[in-house]
Write a structure and sequence with these properties.
Blueprint (H helix, E strand, L loop, with lengths): L1 H38 L2 H15 L7 E5 L10 E5 L4 E5 L7 H4 L3 E3 L3 E7 L2 E6 L4 E7 L2 E7 L1 H4 L2 E7 L9 E2 L2 E2 H18 L4 E5 L9 H11 L3 E8 L12 E5 L10 H16 L3 E6 L4 H4 L5 E8 L3 H7 L2 H21 L2
Parallel strand pairs: 9-12, 9-13, 13-16, 14-15
Antiparallel strand pairs: 1-4, 1-8, 2-3, 3-6, 5-6, 7-8, 10-11, 14-16
The structure holds zinc ion.
Zinc ion binds next to loops.
């Protein structure tokens, strides 16, 4: 008798356990599915909708994103911004509703997307390196490809105007180094914009902003550049005005000096810059203690155009004429280096 009661109660217990496990399990599954969409990151949503689309259709998505566009939208209506210094690509699809991406999910796969953010008509993609986004619209679908700079350009060059924004660099008689460096780079950009060779130029800045040292230093590697040139203006160690003047170029002395090395690039920059400006040559010097030189993955040279602590050179450095000469010198150095095989 006791044995029977025990048997029945253990059956009841087992049924209760199984029943509650099933109910509870289903409940958490439903719950989890509901939470999913809201909690999913952009990347998770992309993967989720893409594998769903691959399961239901016979399509496969590789190294390309695609999105169904609102009716009548053309490629030129879409705004693309490529902030290559941070490797962020922004895509604006004007006039779409809040839940557009839920009804028309972004589909595709790429191993090179680090992060993805979608909101209203805005897609923000963080890439693992610098890519040129290429958009094509066919039958109401936007296809987005990410192309390496080397697929677009024959040669790639990174140019860095030293300091910027809240980092003025040296200040002499109210003149800030960041402004001289930027003025020279803007003159250089004017020359390079006119050049008809297929050279891709990536600037760490073209305005008064201050990218981090890491962003500056990595841009050579992230673009796969052939060379990296940084533009600075010099000061004496104690910062006092002095007779000391001239141009010098720094390179990483701990990297190899054979062939198309940073040292040889520095030598080219020195020769071309001093020739164009008529400035005194102070030679090429060690620069391994400088972050952007030490951390550059591509041949790098840092030009100290002239001394802000020399009265005569300071007034030259602030004149448009001399800034143009400096730019011409760097321009000649870039073309010569590329011709030599960098
Ligand atoms: Zn500087």
């Amino acid at each position: 008798m006791e044995g029977r009661i025990l048997k029945i109660s253990s059956w009841i217990l087992m049924i209760t356990v199984v029943f509650s496990a099933v109910v509870l399990g289903q409940f958490t599954m439903i719950h989890r599915r509901e939470m999913k969409r809201e909690q999913m990151s952009g990347l998770q949503m992309l993967a989720y909708y893409t594998s769903q689309a691959e399961e239901t259709g016979d399509v496969s998505f590789r190294h390309q994103l695609r999105l169904e566009l609102p009716e009548g939208m053309k490629a030129e209506d879409i705004v693309i911004e490529n902030d290559y210094v941070s490797q962020n690509i922004m895509i604006e699809i004007p006039g779409v509703e809040k839940d557009y991406f839920v009804e028309h999910p972004l589909l595709g796969r790429s191993n090179h997307i680090n992060d993805l953010y979608m909101e209203h008509g805005r897609i923000e993609i963080t890439m693992d390196a610098v890519y040129e986004p290429q958009i094509k619209v066919q039958k109401g679908i936007m296809y987005l490809d990410f192309v390496r700079p080397q697929a677009v350009y024959d040669k790639v060059v990174v140019i860095d105007a030293g300091h910027g924004g809240k980092a003025p660099g040296a200040i002499k008689q109210g003149i800030m180094e960041k402004d001289i460096n930027l003025a020279i780079v803007q003159e250089l950009k004017a020359l390079l914009d006119e050049n008809d060779q297929n050279i891709g130029i990536y600037y760490t800045r073209t305005e008064d902003v201050n990218p981090t040292f890491v962003q500056r230093a990595q841009l050579g590697g992230k673009t796969g550049a052939n060379l990296f040139i940084s533009v600075h203006s010099n000061s004496t160690v104690d910062g006092q005005m002095s007779k000391y003047s001239g141009t010098e170029v720094m390179y990483d002395e701990l990297k190899g000096e054979e062939g198309l090395s940073s040292k040889h690039l520095a030598q080219i920059c020195l020769e071309e810059a001093t020739a164009a400006m008529g400035s005194k040559s102070n030679g090429v010097t060690h620069g391994n203690n400088i972050f952007i030189i030490r951390n550059s993955e591509v041949p790098a040279a840092l030009i100290e155009v002239g001394f802000m602590t020399n009265q005569e050179e300071l007034s030259k450095l602030t004149s448009k004429d001399y800034q143009k000469k400096a730019a011409q010198g760097i321009y000649n150095a870039i073309l010569r280096a590329l011709e030599e095989g960098y």
